[in-house]
Amino acid sequence: MPVPDDFAFNRAIVDATAELVCAYKPNLAYYEAMGLQGLEDLHKTVTHIRNIAPTAVIIGDAKRGDIGPSAEAYAKALFEVWDFDAITINAWGGHDTVTPFIQNHEKGVFVWCRGSNPGSTDFQDLQTVTDVSSVPLYLKMALACQEWDTNSNLGLVVGATVPDQLKEARVACPTMPFLIPGVGAQGGDLEAAILHGTDSRGRGALINSSRGIIYASGGPDFAQAAARAANQFQNHINTR
């Protein structure tokens, strides 16, 4: 069986999982790395998701981070050109890097708060001193985002691989939506992500599994395997 091209692969994955998932999160880096053909594949993928899974949220995993006109241009590209429902951004430049992205009340923004990668400890866990105590930098970021969330469209990215930090972020920001990567190939624990990442109603969290689903099989049954993996993942979440 010939290897499907990128859009054909995406189309098969979407067709197989459309009734099982609440969101899709294309990572822009991989499409940009393929040049114009990659961007065309991304466009066709977003269009196909809209047609096949119209209620699914499409998150553009871009992690953009800039200020002023540059940030405004990024926001226009991601929300108006690509028509993503939500995006990820890098807010380590401060409030100026967040404001341009949250102007549209109908679009969501997830700020990279505490990464799932080991290197996140290099900076995000550093202690910062306040008037009354010291808090890790990622928690200061979480609290700042909660303050900046004047349009109720701001959320946090916190990794499933760091359950203690996930728990602290949820306690500090009890109502903000969380995007939780790291379950599956990165080794994050699903039960811990559910326990510590959801809000008081057991909601408010998008728990992400990418490679564990789309690469559930390397054979010709890859789409069917993805559907089985997504169904199992969904059942694990719903029964916890």
Structural write-up:
This protein is of the alpha/beta class and 240 residues long. Helix content is 42%, strand content 16%. It has 9 helices and 9 strands. The protein has helices at 6-17, 28-32, 35-52, 68-81, 137-148, 163-172, 190-197, 211-214, 222-238, and strands at 23-24, 57-64, 86-89, 108-114, 127-129, 134-136, 154-158, 178-180, 205-207. It has a 7-stranded parallel β-sheet. A two-stranded antiparallel sheet has the order 5-6. Helix 4 links the parallel strand 2 and strand 3. Helix 1 packs across helix 9 (222-238) and helix 5 (137-148) packs parallel to helix 6. The mean pLDDT is 94.
Please describe the structure with a list of short key phrases separated by commas or semicolons:
seven-stranded parallel β-sheet; globular; 9 strands; 16% strand; alpha/beta; two-stranded antiparallel ribbon; 240 residues; 9 helices
SSE blueprint and pairings:
Blueprint: H1 6-17, E1 23-24, H2 28-32, H3 35-52, E2 57-64, H4 68-81, E3 86-89, E4 108-114, E5 127-129, E6 134-136, H5 137-148, E7 154-158, H6 163-172, E8 178-180, H7 190-197, E9 205-207, H8 211-214, H9 222-238
Parallel strand pairs: 1-2, 2-3, 3-4, 4-7, 7-8, 8-9
Antiparallel strand pairs: 5-6
Helix pairs in contact: 1-3, 1-9, 5-6, 6-7
